[in-house]
Structures are given as C-alpha cells and as structure tokens.
Amino acid sequence: MNGADNRTTLTLTYVVLGMAAFITLFPIALMLLNSLKAAPEVIRSPLAVPEEIRWDNYTRAWRDGNFSTAFLNSAILTVMTIILVCGSGSMTAYVLARKKIKSWRLVTGYLLATTTAPIQLFLFPLYFGFARLGLIDNVFAVSVIYCAIFSPFSIMLLRTYFLAVPKELEEAALIDGATHWQVFTRVMLPIVWPGILTVALIVGLNTWNEFLIATTFLQGQGSMTAIVSFFLFSGQYTTDWGQLMAGATIVVLPVVALFIFLQRRFIEGMTGGSVKG
C-alpha cells in the first residue's frame, strides 16, 4: 500500500512539475518561434511554424536597437552594481554577524523596511538631486542607486553565512597574528563565497532587467541600457512583431544563459543561507 501511495505521489509530483515547466517555457518558445517570422505571419499564425526563417530579424533588431552600445551600458551597470553590493554588503554583514548589537531588532526592521519600500517614493528627489549634480545619463552614478536598493537584502542574506562560520576559525587566525582585515579577506570570504555568488547572481539579474530607474536616469542615446532600447522598439502606430520578438530574444538570452550556467550554485547558495540569526 505504501508503495502504491509513493508511486501516486511521485506521479502527481512529476505532473505538477511538468505543468510548471510548460507554463514557464511556453512563452520563451513562442518568442523564439515568432522571432523567425515576418510581421504579417506573426499576426496571422503566432503558433505555427515559420513558413520562411527570417534571420534578418535579428540583424535588424541589433542595428535598430543600437544594442552594441546598449549591451555595453547594461554590462557596465550590472558589473559595477555587483561589485558595490557584494563589497559593501559583505563587510557590513560580517560586522553585524560578529559584533553584538543591542538594537539588532531595530536594525532588522530598518533593513526589512528599506527592502520593501517602493522606489517610487524616492524617485523624484533622487532625480532632482542627480540633475543638480549633473549625473543624469551617468551609468556609474546610477549603479550607486542600485547598490542602495539591493544592499539591505544582500546584507541580511550574507549575515546568515557569516553566522554559520565557527568563531574558532577567526580566533585561531587572530592568534596566529592575522589582522581583522586578513581574517575577513583570507578566512571568511573563501568560506562564504557561495552566498556572495548568490547575491551577485540575484543583483545582476535584477539590474539587467530593471526598467524604471534606467529609463528615468539614463535617457541619452549613448547611455541607454538594453531594456530601455528594447522598449523603444514598439512604434506608436505600427510594430514589426518579428523584429520585436528578435529583440526580446537578444535581451533575454544572456540572462537565461547565465542562470542556467549558475543555477546549481544559486540553489546551493539560497539553501546554504537558511541559518537563523
């Protein structure tokens, strides 16, 4: 009886997972399928196989979307944000994990509040401040905004990793003559690197896909990100749907490839950080 119940449970699990995979992958497959069609064919039969494969949709999308510049801007913005968040977040999390803070509940409340607070509350003051400082269309300056947005979550996640490291390792290194900075860089960081990789992946994906801040602070043609350039594909009166799908594929492909390549590390990092602090 138990064997039959186990088989039934396993079958239901596979059915649910199969349905979830279909719901997740179907839009991507439809996007790839329509990216190889002419615009009238996309409108006429979006689910059909292309009558003629139109590879030129990709070349036109790359050229018209100015993706050579947009991808470079997105890459610079993403890398800078990851460096700022992982650098400042790891140091802050290490201090919060090792120092006894009487008002830790207050700090936790602050981090949770800043994580859940909508960016729209600060958008206008930020814009006027950046405009006064001449930082509009500055990719490096915008990375500081992203750092402020993603740091609270990163600090809370990385703190759990530092809490999981035995204090004896740190004490032994200090007894051997290491400085606190050497303990942090040579002992702690190599141990908590799965958490740092997880933070880097989450921050990178969110930075690459972010639209509101990018379209507000990066308005110039030479400073637009890939997401903003893709948004401009849609015309006011007519839209080339084949080219639009090709542009969407170009923008999404790096994100999907990166996640597939690092998904095992990502899952390990998320489960490894589930230590109660």
TrEMBL record:
- The yes or no answer to whether the keyword Glycosyltransferase is present is no
Per the database record, which ranges form the ABC transmembrane type-1 domain?
71-262
Q: Pfam family example for this protein?
A: BPD_transp_1
Taxonomically, the superkingdom here is Bacteria
Checking InterPro entries in the record gives: MetI-like, MetI-like_sf
User: What is the annotated localization of this protein?
Assistant: Cell inner membrane; Cell membrane
Instruction: Give the membrane topology.
Output: Multi-pass membrane protein
| Alphabetically ordered keywords of this record | Cell inner membrane, Cell membrane, Membrane, Transmembrane, Transmembrane helix, Transport
Which stretches are transmembrane?
12-33, 70-97, 109-128, 140-162, 183-205, 244-262
Family per similarity comment: Belongs to the binding-protein-dependent transport system permease family.
The subunit field of the Swiss-Prot or TrEMBL record says: The complex is composed of two ATP-binding proteins (UgpC), two transmembrane proteins (UgpA and UgpE) and a solute-binding protein (UgpB).
- Function per UniProt: Part of the ABC transporter complex UgpBAEC involved in sn-glycerol-3-phosphate (G3P) import. Probably responsible for the translocation of the substrate across the membrane.
Protein name as it appears in the record: sn-glycerol-3-phosphate transport system permease protein UgpE
Organism of origin is Hoeflea poritis
